[in-house]
Amino acid sequence: MAQYVELYDTTLRDGTQAENFNLSVEDKVRITLALDELGMDFIEGGWPGSNPVSVDYFERMQSIKLQHAKLTAFGSTRNFKNSPAKDPNLLALLHAKTPAVTIFGKSWDIHVHDALHIELEDNLQIIEDTLAFLRPSVDFLFYDAEHFFDGFKNNEEYALKTLESAVRGGAQTIILCDTNGGTLPQEIPPIIAKVRTYLAARNSTVDLGIHAHNDSETAVANSLIAISLAKVKQVQGTMNGFGERCGNANLTSIIPALVFKMGVECEVRKNIDRLYTTSRLVNELANLPHYRYQPYVGESAFAHKGGVHVSAVNQNPLTYEHIAPDKVGNIRRILISDQSGRANILHKAKQWNLPLSMDDPILAAIISELKELENQGYQYEGAEASFELLMRRAMGLTRNYFKFESFMVMNHKYLMDKPPLTEATIRLFVGGSEVHTAAMGDGPVNALDCAIRKALTRFYPSLEEMELTDYKVRVLSGEHGTEARVRVLVESRDRHNTWGTVGVSVNIIEASWQALVDSINYKLMQEDRKSAAK
Questions:
Q1: Residues 176, 195: contact at Cβ < 8 Å?
Q2: Which of 318, 293, 320 is nearest to 307 (CA)?
Q3: What pLDDT is stored for residue 343 in this prediction?
């Protein structure tokens, strides 16, 4: 029978301890529901009473029914000065009315003396009576042995005694925590083996779990080795690895490894194709960028750039992919760059329904133009809309929606304590009609964007739904100082799609104009496709 592992998500508590990671109550509820749909077994919602957001969240969740996951409240052992029945922290945990509660306590003798300022025996007592007080009121009671691996290496006998106290208190699962993240994978199995021997000698059959931090870049490895070699029952982590300092064990890497590589059973197996979208939802609600190089769920996880790679992947994806991207809800991407060969271009032509074959002389012309433009500083990996337009122009498949004659951008700093006024003026033709107009903006690029769309919207109303969502500038060479060539990447979107375009020039406004014009042309081309499809 396959090993079953409980997946315990602590994004809403440990994850929010990451720098710049903040969630509202509504955000936390949405993430909870998404994690439940994914199939997470336990979702740690936070520390009740620690802040108003946590209080409101647990009150909201009392009226929301989860389909599979068990909501978990998190807290510490009682204050030594309080009895369990009068400890505000423990009472807040009960008030949260969650089916599961996780208590953390000290395993490292240094923390007992220097953080709690109590005697070692006193710490053993507060672990036991805290858990014993809570046990009758919850369905699932977990004990996080904080700093266990450091505590074990410093004072093995005492660290093991703390676990014995947790067992006497009624903990159903003891989670061994590498809180400082300094333990290496080869240390994990022998330490857990000693834990099992110690508890077995005391007739305890309590389950074990692992909670790893990533300060040594080993949190995922430590978690997987604890499951595969030490056979722990529960693994804790966060979506995308968010957490204090360097983060926690990344569940978006752990889960696919368990399902596809280790044959471990877990509820998420049924819904693992939701992993990519759940990962992105967490980033979006936290207002943080997606890490494109993240395994399994990153945009580059299944991206292929070199011509040899692309040719092989087109024949058999297994040549350069360890799993199929759609298994986790991701997609395969073929990148366009100066390393691109014929296979890359033909793949894109097929993707965009362009009539291009291997023996078409246009193919060589496209490759030549691509390499020349990238030599000038153009980059199409993040600007595929610009590259599609390039291909269509080379094949004579583009429509001239408008013709630019000139533009001018003016910044007027009229008072030193006020922001400058920025105005863009443009002159263009649509068919036989000349348009000469101007617009104000928050900076030169925004003013130019507003002026272009002001001129074109009367002819192409669909441009009203388009917006610029991201703007990046990179200096390509510092050898000429302020005369250096710059590359501008623009990301735009409408109600249905997001696309990227690029411009390059020694003048940042000129480069921005190129990217903006490509973006508008791409939008209008998409509208033509929709009309043709009808």
A1: yes
A2: 320
A3: 74
Q: Residue 486 is encoded by which pair of tokens? A: 């710059």
Matching residue, tokens 């067992």: 167
The domain that contains 527 carries what CATH number? 3.30.160.270
Give yes or no for residue 158 having a pLDDT over 60: yes
Examine the domain organization and report whether 274 and 341 are in the same domain. no
**Cα–Cα distance measured from residue 466 to residue 520, given in angstroms and rounded to the nearest whole number:** 9
Residue 178: which residues within 8 A CB-CB, separation 6 or more?
Answer: 148, 149, 150, 210, 211, 212, 213, 219, 222
Single-letter code of the amino acid located at 230: A
- Residue 368 sits in the same domain as residue 424: no
How far is it, in rounded angstroms, from Cα 425 to Cα 444? 11
Please give the distance of CA 440 from its chain centroid, rounded to a whole number. 36
- Both 187 and 307 in one domain: the answer is no
The residue out of 337, 360, 376 marking a domain boundary is: 376
Q: How many domains does the chain have?
A: 3
Q: Give the Cα separation of 86 and 115 in Å (integer).
A: 22
Find the CATH number of the domain harbouring 39.
Answer: 3.20.20.70
Q: What is the mean pLDDT of residues 48-62?
A: 91
**Cα–Cα distances in Å, from 315 out to 269, 291, 312?**
28, 29, 5
Q: What is the pTM of this model?
A: 0.74
Q: Are residues 355 and 407 in the same domain?
A: no
Structure tokens at 528: 């033509």
Q: Are residues 252 and 216 in the same domain?
A: yes
Rounded to the nearest 5 percent, the helix, strand and coil shares of the chain are 45, 20, 35
pLDDT, residue 475, reads: 84
- CA dihedral in degrees (23, 27, 30, 33; nearest 10)? 30
Residue 436 belongs to a domain: yes
Confidence of residue 226 (pLDDT cuts 50, 70, 90): very high
Residue 460 lies in a domain: yes
Residues 6 or more apart in contact with residue 480 via CB below 8 angstroms: 506
In angstroms, rounded to a whole number, what is the distance separating the alpha carbons of residues 289 and 283?
A: 6
Q: Which helix (H) or strand (E) holds 120?
A: helix 120-134
Q: Which of 285, 314, 334 is the last residue of a domain?
A: 285
Nearest by Cα to 21 from 245, 255, 210, 223: 245
Residue 200 located in a structural domain: yes
Tell me the two tokens of residue 494. Answer: 């409408």
The pLDDT value recorded for residue 530 is 85
Chain-centroid distance of CA 132 in Å reads 38
Within this chain, do residues 226 and 314 fall inside the same structural domain, yes or no?
Answer: no
Residues 179 and 71 in one domain: yes
395 part of a folded domain: no
- 76 and 150 together in one domain: yes
Helices (H), 217-259: 219-228, 251-256
236 closest CA partner among 225, 250, 246, 247:
250
Give the position of tokens 């336990």: 42
CA distances from residue 401 to 93, 312, 428, 522 in whole angstroms, order as listed: 63, 39, 11, 10
Domain span holding position 158: 6-285
What would the mean pLDDT of 123-143 be, rounded to a whole number?
A: 98
Interatomic CA distance for residues 484 and 488, integer angstroms: 13
